[in-house]
Specification:
single chain; 159 residues; mainly alpha; 2 domains; two-stranded parallel sheet; 5 helices; binds zinc ion
Amino acid sequence: MAWANWTDQQKEAMLLAMEALKKQIPQDVSITDGQLCPNCGHPATQRYCSVCGQKLSWKKTSIEYHGPRHQVVQFAKAMEVELLENDYKGGWKDCNSSFLLEKLDEEVAELKEVVKLCRFTEGNSGEKKPNLELRRNVSSEAADVGNIAMMLADICDAL
Ligand SMILES: [Zn+2]
């Protein structure tokens, strides 16, 4: 049924339903915006705005308060170390996605190899912890995977 043929009552009911649905899509609450409901501007304190019913997401606030968790910071440092070692190659601006996707598969395969050597991750609690060299290899291979994923996001203009 075309919108033009709807009665005013039907249109009003549909618009109300659409508005209610939109409020179910979480909107970011930000410290820089004064922790206000992004829909109506009322101070936000819970998962839903107490005034307009907008569903709220507190992820952004949490990142603004605490910064990234320490594993993410350590991982970013490991990524940067790998990037610095490869800067002489001239960066990834001219890489296309099919090249990078192939590279991602290679790096994932390398990560799988080193993770397999960390036998204790398979639940064999009796196995001793991996030595420093092995842990460094895991960190470096994981960072390579992270870097290729980051480059893919970057060439998609998503960062
Ligand atoms: Zn609100």
